[in-house]
Structure prediction request, 148 residues.
Amino acid sequence: MRSLEECTKSRNDIEIVLSEKRSSFKLMNPDKYPVDVVTIDGCVFENEPSPRCDYLLFLKEKTIEVYVELKGKRNIEHAVDQIDSTISYMICAKKAGIKLIKRVGYIIGCRYPQDNLRLKKLVKKIYEKYRCSIKVKNSNFSVNYDEF
Prediction:
């Protein structure tokens, strides 16, 4: 396990693209605000069996954490557990003095059923537990910085 600092890259690109398998998440950042991109799975947690999401983006100007899980054809419901586990880790690892405004999670997957009741219940549970809204989107998704 590496430290958060070792796995963080500060970026201010116009487009910040995270991709894996057949899924990608793109943050449109036209004003080039500073964004810390933390590679959770494969860096902070390297070769560890515990479920963790792929990336965490910290939008510094807005003090917002954005959790991103990129899925191929695997279990979308498992992605909620991965985000849950990562938020729990971040709460324990967080330095005092950082006031967080908001948490948002994105699960980007190739296919998922729109009316999956179990998934909806899991997403609701995470919101109640952490005040983190989770959005499930199809394979290639982009969002504008100003939408947060």
The chain has two helices and nine strands. Residues 8-147 form one domain. The beta strands are 8-11, 15-20, 23-28, 35-39, 55-59, 64-70, 102-109, 132-138, 140-144.
